[in-house]
Amino acid sequence: MTDETVPPQTLSSQTRLLFVGALALAFIGFGLFVSGWEETLAGMDNILFARDTLITDYVELGGVGAAFLNAGLLTIIAAGFYWVTGATVGGGAIAALLLVLGFALFGKNLLNIWPILAGVFIYSRFRGEPFGNHLNTAFFGCALAPVVSEVLFSTSLAPMISIPLGVMTGIVMGFIMPPVAAQLFKAHGGYSLYNMGFTAGLIGTLVVAIYISYGFVPEPVFIWAVDKTWQLTPFLMVCFGAMIVAGRLVDRECFGRYRDLLTRPGQSPTDFAATCGDGAVLVNMGVLGVLSTGYVLAIDADLNGPVIGAILSIVGFGAFGKHAFNCTPVVAGVFLATVLKQGDPTTPGVILAALFSTTLAPISGSFGWYWGIVAGMVHVSAAQTVGVLHGGLNLYNNGFAAGFVAATIAPVALAIQARFTQQTGPKI
Predict the structure, then answer these.
(1) Which of these, 104, 201, 229, 312, could form a disulfide with 74 (CB 3.0-4.6 Å)?
(2) Is 240 found in the same domain as 132?
(3) Could you tell me the residue range of the domain that residue 282 belongs to?
(4) What is the DSSP letter of 267?
(5) Is residue 53 in some structural domain?
(6) Is the torsion defined by CA of 310, 315, 320, 321 positive or negative?
(7) R_g over Cα of the chain
(8) Do 257 and 176 fall within a single domain?
(9) 283 with 371, same domain?
(10) What is the pLDDT of residue 423?
(11) Phi, psi (rounded to 5 degrees) for 56
């Protein structure tokens, strides 16, 4: 039993970055082991110069080696920014870094993120604030990196136009993201964990609308690997198992603290690393990774770049709001709605909706499992509809959809909850 007088074991920001760096190096090593240097480097060309519109699976486009090399290098670079700037690495930063690792398998790469980072940097200087204060926003904001690639590599524009236009578009988007994100958070009140997905979706919608009005129409892309599950499953399970073991090594009381973590509703901002300690967080992240991978395997869906990206988004937010108890009802809602519509839960759109729907975990954590099921059922329909607004150029399409879902369902749940509390509360 956990001794509640013993404070949770928390690690320094630098040590947390070393853990993230070790995971990134594992990705690089695995990719090179599977593909070798020659195939990996050849695949990197395909990745760096792709248009990256949803869905562009780097595992299929460039091979396992190139996809995992891109993911690992990009994550190490991102961790380097936190290290050099001295930024605090809490649960939000861990989530941001694992989203870099995951989405670098299908949309973020070593070429297309820089204009957006530059835009956020310019905004920080404009505000007279340290860049480190805005790093989470900067790396979450790379959800719109495909916009940069789409313009840079447009075949309808001459390079002398497309290159400066793509760079400037990314800089402008990065500059406006911090204030827009702060404002939009109020719309859902932290009941969707992917606030930058909501923000990127609205900004992306406006940018795409402007470009379409000038005749520049993004063409849809669908690249999806279907034959890599047998290679990827053992590696993922080893990584997630290692997280659980590391949690026990960091804190001998981690499992007791993990039980406490499971009682938290998860409404953003909820930094599990600060409240429950790094040991419990590592256990939570490992358990979420095993469960989400297990769900994919149980329904016989494919493991590939986008699906692993979705799994890592769950794992990353295991430090910042998600756990097995508040995620499961939402995923169940997606599955139930799909079955009721006689759909296939293994199709790309649905499996991604199921995994990314966990952004709505605070709804089930705050209002009960039944509201989580409702949120999941609504989310799967929204996620398959809103993508047309931003032309597939927002990597966090499910976060965009979830913003609308949370902004609608949370106020209704709060109102009903308040009414029942009033009826059953003490009478004076």
Answers:
(1) 104
(2) no
(3) 229-420
(4) P
(5) yes
(6) positive
(7) 21
(8) no
(9) yes
(10) 62
(11) -120, 100
Would the pLDDT of 393 be above 90? Answer: no
How do residues 131-160 score in pLDDT, each as one tens digit? 999 999 999 999 999 999 989 987 677 889
Residue 110 has pLDDT above 80, yes or no: yes
Cβ atoms of 22 and 60 closer than 8 Å: no
Shared domain check, 73 and 170: yes
CA dihedral 392, 393, 396, 398 (to 10 degrees): -20
Residues 265, 209: one domain? no
- pLDDT single digits (tens) 195-237: 999 999 999 999 989 988 888 777 788 999 999 999 999 999 9
Q: Which residue has the higher pLDDT, 49 or 4?
A: 49
Best CA proximity match to 77, nearest among 153, 37, 157, 21 = 21
Q: What is the CB neighbour count within 10 angstroms for residue 152?
A: 23
Owner of token pair 């009033």: 422
The DSSP-derived string for 287-333 is: HHHHHHHHHHHHTTPPPSHHHHHHHHHHHHGGGTT--HHHHHHHHHH
Q: CA–CA separation, 101 vs 97, rounded Å?
A: 6
Average pLDDT over residues 386-391: 83
Structure token pair of residue 201 = 């979706």
Q: Verify that 243 and 181 share a domain, yes or no.
A: no
